Amino acid sequence: MSDLPEVKPPVVTPVRVVIGLCLLAPFVAMLWVGSYTKTDPAFIGIPFFYWYQLLWVPLSTLLTVVAYQLWRRDQRARTSAKEGADA
User: Fold this and answer.
1) Mean pLDDT score of the chain, rounded to an integer?
2) How many CA within 13 A on the CB side of residue 60?
3) 62 vs 5, more confident
4) Whole-angstrom Cα distance, residue 47 to residue 29?
5) Proportion of the chain above pLDDT 70, given as a percent
6) By the number of CB atoms within 10 A of the CB, which of 28, 37, 55, 80 ranks highest?
7) Is 18 part of any domain?
8) Residue 13, domain member (yes or no)
9) Spatial separation of the C-alpha atoms in residues 33 and 51, rounded to whole Å
10) In the chain, how many domains are there?
11) Average of pLDDT values for 8-24?
């Protein structure tokens, strides 16, 4: 028989789905150009096309931070659960 360790399939949890959505949202928002190719409503004289894209810079940062914090919490929970099962 083989001495290779047993490989378990990846686990899809609700937290991991939220992480994926946090990371996917900025891409979808920026790649769907037809949703923001207009000039109105203008914000302090800046056409919608520009301020919409600029708004996504801090939003993307925030969503990435949220995804990272959720990932760290998920990894800590998996590690502690694994250590508890090993004991």
Assistant:
1) 88
2) 12
3) 62
4) 17
5) 87
6) 55
7) no
8) no
9) 13
10) 1
11) 88
Q: How far apart are CA 25 and CA 10, in angstroms?
A: 22
- 43 in Cβ contact with 54 (< 8 Å): no
Scored b (16 or more CB within 10 A) or e, 24-56 reads eebeebeeeeeebeeeeeeeeeeebeebbeeeb
- Residue 51 placed within a domain: yes
User: How long, in residues, is the chain?
Assistant: 87
Distance CA 69, CA 65 (A): 6
Residue range(s) defining the domain that contains residue 39 = 27-69
Distance CA 40, CA 46 (A): 9
**Segment 46-60, tens digit of pLDDT:** 999 999 999 999 999
**Which amino acid is it at 28?**
V
User: Could you report the per-residue pLDDT of 61-80, keeping only the tens digit for each?
Assistant: 999 999 999 999 998 988 88
- For residue 39, is it within any domain? yes
